[in-house]
């Protein structure tokens, strides 16, 4: 884990409604995530995990507060800049996999590269490398519905890495997997984060998944608190 802060937020708050119907989904959330660090965001359903991740990834706009991706300010960025950041600098891993059923495994991984204009030869080489890394090298021509749930999520991880992002955001990536596949997924994400020096924030309600964290953030009723992770000697105090 380096000292390079990839993701930073200050005093993020998100409210819905107003007056007597106002709901505070997130309250004053300040955090940072560094290159090569796996931060696990843990809390029960409805605690604010998805709200926070959506704000960090520029998919939602905070009521107040600010998000930075490196030196780029996410909050208040133009739609064009947000699209560029999401395509080039952020890799998303979804609970529901969100794969395109009409495309093969290789084509699902290749698509993000096409969107940013990566040359054909480089696309082909990177697809082969990423499918091999996640153990799907022999499944390149299969479509998502021909793969198991665990294989589909591994494909989702390969796609998230397609454009060599600085940040990975994963919202309950093991939510639809059995315990064995869930453990495999978190181990794979942890390995890739550390080997590729990527910053990652992963939400879960499963306390077993937190064993892979470098740092744990707890969220309850929209409020963050911090715990140490497994690499205690390398961690800072607090959030």
TrEMBL record:
<dbReference type="InterPro" id="IPR017911">
    <property type="entry name" value="MacB-like_ATP-bd"/>
</dbReference>
<dbReference type="InterPro" id="IPR027417">
    <property type="entry name" value="P-loop_NTPase"/>
</dbReference>
<dbReference type="GO" id="GO:0022857">
    <property type="term" value="F:transmembrane transporter activity"/>
</dbReference>
<keyword id="KW-0067">ATP-binding</keyword>
<dbReference type="Pfam" id="PF00005">
    <property type="entry name" value="ABC_tran"/>
</dbReference>
<dbReference type="GO" id="GO:0016887">
    <property type="term" value="F:ATP hydrolysis activity"/>
</dbReference>
<dbReference type="InterPro" id="IPR003439">
    <property type="entry name" value="ABC_transporter-like_ATP-bd"/>
</dbReference>
<protein>
    <submittedName>
        <fullName>Putative ABC transport system ATP-binding protein</fullName>
    </submittedName>
</protein>
<feature type="domain" description="ABC transporter">
    <location>
        <begin position="7"/>
        <end position="239"/>
    </location>
</feature>
<dbReference type="GO" id="GO:0098796">
    <property type="term" value="C:membrane protein complex"/>
</dbReference>
<dbReference type="GO" id="GO:0005524">
    <property type="term" value="F:ATP binding"/>
</dbReference>
<keyword id="KW-0813">Transport</keyword>
<dbReference type="InterPro" id="IPR017871">
    <property type="entry name" value="ABC_transporter-like_CS"/>
</dbReference>
<dbReference type="InterPro" id="IPR003593">
    <property type="entry name" value="AAA+_ATPase"/>
</dbReference>
<dbReference type="GO" id="GO:0005886">
    <property type="term" value="C:plasma membrane"/>
</dbReference>
<keyword id="KW-0547">Nucleotide-binding</keyword>
<dbReference type="InterPro" id="IPR015854">
    <property type="entry name" value="ABC_transpr_LolD-like"/>
</dbReference>
């Amino acid at each position: 884990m380096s000292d390079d802060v990839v993701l930073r937020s200050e005093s993020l708050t998100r409210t819905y409604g107003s007056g007597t119907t106002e709901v505070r989904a997130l309250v004053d959330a300040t955090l940072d995530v560094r290159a090569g660090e796996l931060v696990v965001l843990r809390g029960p359903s409805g605690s604010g995990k998805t709200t926070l991740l959506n704000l960090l990834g520029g998919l939602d706009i905070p009521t107040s507060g600010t998000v930075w991706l490196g030196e780029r300010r996410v909050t208040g960025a133009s739609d064009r800049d947000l699209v560029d950041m999401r395509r080039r600098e952020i890799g998303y891993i979804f609970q529901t996999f969100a794969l395109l059923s009409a495309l093969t495994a290789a084509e699902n991984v290749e698509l993000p590269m096409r969107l940013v204009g990566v040359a054909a030869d480089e696309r082909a080489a990177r697809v082969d490398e990423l499918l091999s890394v996640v153990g799907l090298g022999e499944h390149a021509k299969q479509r998502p519905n021909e793969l198991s749930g665990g294989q589909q999520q591994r494909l989702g991880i390969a796609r998230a890495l397609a454009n060599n992002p600085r940040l990975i955001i994963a919202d309950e990536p093991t939510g639809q997997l059995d315990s064995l596949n869930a453990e495999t997924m978190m181990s794979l994400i942890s390995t890739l984060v550390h080997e590729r020096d990527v910053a990652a924030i992963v939400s879960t309600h499963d306390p077993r998944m937190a064993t892979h964290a470098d740092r744990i953030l707890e969220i309850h009723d929209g409020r963050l608190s911090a715990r140490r992770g497994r690499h205690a000697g390398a961690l800072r105090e607090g959030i």
